[in-house]
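Possible regression after last week's pipeline update?

I re-ran a chain I had predicted before the update to compare outputs. Posting the input and the new output here so someone can diff against the archived version. Not blocking, just want to make sure nothing changed silently.
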Amino acid sequence: MVDNTNLTAKVELRNYFLDNWDYEQPIRIMEAFTGQSRKIYKRAYKDKGLDVTSLDLKGGDGVIKTDNRAFIRDHANDFNFFDFDDYGAPYEQVITLFHNRTSNEPFVLVITDGVARYIGYGHPTKLVSYACRVPLKMKVWGLSSFWNEITQMIYTKITKRYNFKITKAKIITGGNTGKMYYYGFCIERDRS
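New output (post-update):
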């Protein structure tokens, strides 16, 4: 299992978007990878009186036991703040969200991403292959050195494909985050 527990960086990212909420609608959070200990909930959400729906495959106290992909598919329009703190990379959940979101309401998406660790060994993932047009079986050494640029391509392609645009972004990496990347995006419907 990947250790992606830089809790300070994760809470900093969430607080940035909570503190800079520019929308009229109240915040409604889906925490899709809660974990039984609910560390992020306790540090970032609990004391703020926010509407938080917490999900995890194992369930727990205050946590809905469910497959988050199905829940996201069925409730993509019910929330405006999506917290995807996965061990690895939550790209299946990201695609499920964009594919099923029909609401024009702006939303925030925060993500923990461990793909740079994997591609550091020269193995492109399906999403990297899609965004960069790199064959899946091709080894590309040094690919992780361009992870910020690759991420920009990935999210630009995903948002455009589903008629959204990113209006604000924050990335936390380096320091003691290892090869984990913590992203946050404000996303709105692209009306152009």
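Follow-up from reviewer: compared with the archived run. The chain has a mean pLDDT of 87. Marking as no regression found.
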